[in-house]
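fyi for ur records
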Amino acid sequence: MATYGSTLRRGLPRVVGGDAWPPAGAAPDGIDDAAAVDSVITAAAAQAVPVAAAVEAVPAAPAAASAVAEPVAASSPVGDRALRRGLPRVPGGEPWPPAGVAPVGASVAPAGASATAPAAPAAAMEVSSAAAPAEASPTRSVTDGDAVTGAGRALRRGLPRTAGGDPWPPAGIAPGRRTAAASVAEAPARPVRAGLPRPGAATVPAAEAPGAASATAAAAAVAVAEPVGPRAPLPFTPSVWPGRAASTRPAPRPEPKRLGPFTRGQWAGAVIVGGFGLLFAAGMAVLLVRWLLSLDGLREFLATYPGEYHLPEGAPVGFPAWLGWQHFFNVFLMVLIIRSGLQVRTEKRPTAFWSPRGNPKRKISLNLWLHQSLDILWLVNGVIFVVLLFVTGQWLRIVPTSWEVFPNAISAALQYVSLDWPTENGWVNYNSLQQLAYFTTVFLAAPLAAATGVRMSGIWPKDAKALNKAYPVEWARAVHFPVMIYFVLFIFVHVVLVFATGALRNLNHMYGGQDAVNWTGFWIFTASLVVIAAAWVAARPLVLAPIAKLFGKVSGR
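which gave:
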């Protein structure tokens, strides 16, 4: 430890920007020997006695003790036994420790008493954070853990007074047996700056008259508990508000409902963007084909192949009544087959099951039963249609009979794309592109859909190992769905061209059985759409279950 000469060690200034304290040149009166001062300070540290009390106990230096305690003697209620008071704990506060705190071991005796009398317990040093921090927050809790504790426990030490020095107060200073309530009651009353109230917390009055606080009020102030809840409000009026997100978090939004891989909004966006893309591509295609058809070579090609060729002699003219009926019933079955097929492909937990009477262990979903039942009706209708085609000679209209069908089909396609429609004379002859499309649908796509559907159905024998090896079910599944996509595209393009190339006349050909431009075929077509829409809505378990019970057993599992 450093020793003193003729001057006392100086500490931090008492005010901001001031000189170090004590003033330069001050020294303990009556103590000229620096070694004596060092021995006193060392002994005080070893015996846990404050330095001021140890210096005061030296017989040869009564004036030295008064010099050490002189800075606070005037404000100390215990005279020359007070500790030296240091810097305030809070800005603008009073020096610390509070006035009236005496060192442990120094007796508070009347004037003239012996300085070497045995040490007695004195008033404890107040270490409560309620004396100073209470000025910053009126709701600061004052508990025994923060205030003076029982004797024998070390005092909480703070920052050093000098750079590189030991923490303050020095080691050995301990609190006395003074209670926290008494410390609060005897502390000088100072006005407390009132802040904003905390929700659900008791507050301490902002100002009290000197001497008005009683022991009961002091004890109640000590018992104020730190509130638990939202953070303390600002001690000043805020000018910027952070909003609800600063202290609360909004509830997470529910996951949007998905239709397949996308939500409804994503599907709508995909349809809009895809529609504009298709329109742009179609416009570019029309401009390109029109430019190609303006060339001399393609002009000669269109003159040689106008889009159709002459049918053989004896080909029928017009459409019989049975063909119109077959056309309606085929559309009716195709629409319901596509709907039920999509339901079977996407359903995960069927709501109802169907079992045949002869085999109750075999169960299929009610949607699959509807799909297979419609397939059987469609196959029966298709067989009747093909038989009537060959019986009446109508097959000559949809079966190519000349190789000229291919260049004429290309010519018809170029005319469709250029929006300069080829000559329509469907009552007598289809153009080559129509003939190829109808032939593919009736004689290729329909048999392929039937063959793959039978392979995946319960009609197919499960124990025929050789047959199953020659025709695996994986092949059928890989082909069946693309065939359905072909039928969807064919129906869409077919309906668009019917309305774009003379709706009333074309509808009369298909439904009215006459080559005229009137509304007869249109109203028959409208009635057929009503029937198809009603069947679409009725194709649900509530309506299908009574029908399915006629052919087997319907159950919920």
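The CA atoms of residues 160 and 167 lie 4 Å apart. thats all i got for now
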